[in-house]
What does this fold into?
Amino acid sequence: MSPMTKGRAGWLAPLSWLALVLGALSMVPPALADCPSHELRVRDAEGQLLVRLPMPQGDGWCLAWNHSVEGFTVHDCYRNVEGHMVLQRSHLPDFAAGLDHIPGRGRQVSDGQGGYWIEALDEPVPGDAYRLRVGAMRVDHRLVSRRDGTSLATLLDDARDCSAGEGYADGLVAMAAEPPVVVSLSERAANQRVTLALEALAPEPRGQDIADP
It folds into this structure.
């Protein structure tokens, strides 16, 4: 082998090793740090888990329901703010029975369709949880995506790609075949009391296999 050929082979050897390392790194699954740190969980009066949704920092959801008298849809929209459940805004299509804007609580803004948004509520929910008496199917209390945030479908897809995402395809999240994702609480617990809570996901202990008890 000529000196030039030998030198070139010595130069290519480190590149081949580097290519192998980069290829191996590309096959490493997403780290736990990339997984959602919190979940929105709904439990019945006995503590049985009914719904779980991944809820990373900064993302959120809306609780929607049909007004029992007028029939239109009301939204209360929440967000995970540094691990705490915060009521951010509400949408009220009309000043119907039981719906009104309390002066000093948020800012009323027209939605351009005869209704209004109550913006800038930014009210922390005590204990990051609250109880709800779920209405019948004509009321249909349901969890839906925020219009100004990451969709529930995207949050679920992202969570399934990480090591903490197992279980989001089971009965605790009844997904439609295509987005948007709507999770009906009335289908699961009509006329019952449930608790909605934003809860932190405990990291797996180092060195312990996820499948271990």
